[in-house]
Amino acid sequence: VGLVINNQTVKGLLHPEAGHIEVKRYPGDVFVGSCPYHLDCIEGMCSTGALAARANCVSVAELAQLSDDDPIWPICAYYIAQLCAHLILIASPEHIAIGG
Fold it and tell me: What would the pLDDT profile of 10-21 be if each residue is shown by its tens digit?
């Protein structure tokens, strides 16, 4: 997760690591988290690696085979929404681009 202002990436002492913002857990979510540093940060809860582990996929490529109504997607959306809310409060962006 990074920040771009006037077509320039924002850098300070280090590069941005907003993917490591800790999140509130989805109700009933028992997934341990896949981030080796924080476990229940954005990366640990809904990165492609975390989603593949949640869905018992052998590779992240298998995520494309999950149906649109798979129960994993509301969980993923819950965590991504928290990331967006944090970004709005921190940087007040005009746009948030989400991709993978």
Answer: 887 877 788 889
Taking the complete model, does pTM exceed 0.85, yes or no? yes
Q: Give me the residues paired with residue 22 across strands.
A: 41
Q: Which helix (H) or strand (E) holds 89?
A: helix 72-91
**Mean pLDDT (the chain, rounded):** 90
Beta strands at 8-9 and 4-5: parallel, antiparallel or unpaired = antiparallel
Q: Is residue 37 pLDDT above 70, yes or no?
A: yes
Report CA dihedral (62, 67, 72, 76) to the nearest 10 degrees.
90
What's the DSSP call for residue 35? B
CA 38/CA 55 separation, integer angstroms: 21
Chain CA centroid to CA 91, Å = 17
Phi, psi of 24 (to 5 degrees): -75, 140
Helix (H, G, I), strand (E, B) or coil at 17: coil
